[in-house]
Fold:
Amino acid sequence: MPGSPHSDRPPICLTRRGRAVLVAFAATLTLILLWLTVGPGAFAGSGEGRGAPVRPARTVVVEPGETLWEIASAADPGSDPRVVVQRIIDLNGLAGDPTVHPGQELRLPAS
Structure:
């Protein structure tokens, strides 16, 4: 405004380096605040000693003539085999070609 006392000040201009320093400072401050708010317990694997113990993954070797349906039924008899078959496909990266071959080792989902 023409009569205001602040009209004589030039606008703030930052150099490229000044902007980079300002952005880095803001990012660092944000990360520190998030760490203090959420805490170190938010990191993956930091729950050691809490909850259920982690069981090692089970694997099976495909026998001649065996299908994913049979493997899924044997792996988790109380569940719907369609769901278990899909979990085996996802776990082993068989989405493109879900056929199994004798001697192939498959990881099974935890039941």
Summary: The CA atoms of residues 87 and 93 lie 10 Å apart. The longest strand covers residues 58-61.
